[in-house]
Design a protein that fits this description.
Radius of gyration: 15 Å
Number of domains: 1
Helix content: over 70%
Shape: elongated
Number of strands: 0
Distance between the termini: 22 Å
């Protein structure tokens, strides 16, 4: 697997970036602002790591988990009634988790190809 070439990680990174900067134009609570920024920035970081180190399955799982956490954050932070922030979290989170879940198997296969045989 080549570095900086996986579209799934770019999509997850864009989802994280969008969630983080959407706090500027969506109605927020203190909890929604914090969760959207934290999970958005962590998604961007995970995507950058996945792009720079392809074939690392644990990073894919971590990125997928961050997408799921972003999706669940409106309920965790009690902002599911704040329409703009909640929908941003739900959509960005499910897209990031979905594309990352689709990339897990290729990452595992690439990891197994690069591991030395016993």
């Amino acid at each position: 697997m080549k570095t900086w070439s996986r579209w799934e990680d770019y999509v997850a990174g864009v989802c994280g970036l969008y969630a983080a900067v959407a706090v500027l134009w969506t109605a927020q609570t203190a909890g929604s602002r914090t969760l959207m920024l934290v999970f958005g920035i962590l998604l961007v970081a995970a995507a950058a790591l996945n792009l720079s180190m392809p074939g690392t399955p644990w990073l894919e799982y971590a990125q997928c988990a961050l997408g799921v956490l972003l999706f669940a954050s409106p309920w965790m932070g009690a902002y599911s009634d704040h329409t703009g922030a909640a929908w941003t979290s739900w959509i960005a989170g499910i897209v990031a988790a979905g594309v990352t879940a689709a990339a897990v198997r290729p990452a595992v296969e690439a990891h197994h190809r690069t591991m030395p045989s016993h």
